[in-house]
Known about the structure:
- The structure is a single chain.
- The radius of gyration is 19 Å and the shape is elongated.
- It is built from 3 helices and no strands.
- It is 71% helix and 0% strand.
- The protein is mostly helical.
Amino acid sequence: MALRKKKGYKFSDEVMAKDAVISLLFGIPAFLCIVFSIVYAIIQKGNVPDFIGAILLVAVIMALTAFIFALFSYKDSDGGIISKRGSLIISLIDIAVLVTLYVI
Length: 104
């Protein structure tokens, strides 16, 4: 029996860039850590224990790592532009919120 071609639409042949995936894997948990810290500080009315500072320090490291990998993903020819832009936007949001928290 001969092989048949599949009928139907194929919208994209591209896969996500590996650097964009790594950036998302660092950027999203960093954002969740930041949100958790802010919500916990609001619930405790500012009387937060020391581990919140450690969580925010980890979030800074993860956000900077996500930003570096997002920049590297733009140089990669593989993958769609949406994942590359998304990883860069998430890492920039992380960094902007962390800088705002530091200034306040």
